[in-house]
Amino acid sequence: MWRRGNEKHPAAKPRRPKPKRRYPPEVLTDAEVRALLDACGQYRTTAIRNRALIAVLYRGGLRINEALALYPKDIDLESGAIRVLHGKGDKPRTIGIDQGAIAILQSWLAVRGRIGVNGIHPVFCTRSGRAMTAGFVRRWFSQLARRAGILKRVHAHGLRHTHAAQLRAEGVDIGIISKQLGHASISTTAKYLDHIAPMAVVNTMRVRTW
């Protein structure tokens, strides 16, 4: 506490230091994502869970906190729809995932049921039902990348970047990409895509001759 005259004022909270350097996003290839999945293993309970988390991040483009906040009731395997109840700005949205990701997720949900974890626990949880933390996932991704032999920076948000870049390369309408990513506007998505996948620049330069 500090005092001015007769007034008491709470001590100011220390500001969080800004990161010294912001690295540009690095988009992964399909082969690199498969290497991550292989590095998880296949048979252990945690391996099946981790493969499912990667699949949802990669094919759904979710932010890590959105993925870790999912509950079984939020996932419709039949339609391939996932409800994000608390997106950025606490805005809800519904995203879609493909059948390949659904199959990997379905494997985890089956294992999850067999170990006694039920609908009151988050989808991505420990064997005792406790939620995974974003901090744990960040550390785990770094270890997994080394095991997979990937030299790029690998992190959960990088899978979101990869998802967006692939949708753009596939010619998906920017309005659909915007809704999938949960952006406030299409202009936000346009800037986002130009940052992570500047295809207009690349395609223009690559056809030049000399």
Description:
The protein has 210 residues and is mainly alpha-helical. The protein has one domain: hpI Integrase, Chain A, CATH 1.10.443.10. Helices cover 50% and strands 8% of the residues. The protein contains 9 helices and 5 strands; from the N terminus they run ββαααβββαααααα. Strands 3-4-5 form a 3-stranded antiparallel sheet. Strand 3 and strand 4 form a beta hairpin. 28% of the residues are buried. The model has no long low-confidence stretch (mean pLDDT 87).
Topology:
Elements: E1 2-4, E2 7-9, H1 30-40, H2 45-60, H3 64-68, E3 75-76, E4 81-84, E5 93-96, H4 99-114, H5 134-148, H6 156-169, H7 174-181, H8 186-196, H9 199-206
Antiparallel strand pairs: 1-2, 3-4, 4-5
Brief account:
With 210 residues, the chain is mostly helical. The protein has nine helices and five strands.
Strand order of the largest sheet: 3-4-5
H-E string: EEHHHEEEHHHHHH
Number of helices: 9
Compute the number of strand runs: 5
> What composes the largest sheet?
3 strands, antiparallel
- In whole angstroms, the N-to-C terminal distance is 69 Å
Helix coverage percent of residues? 40-55%
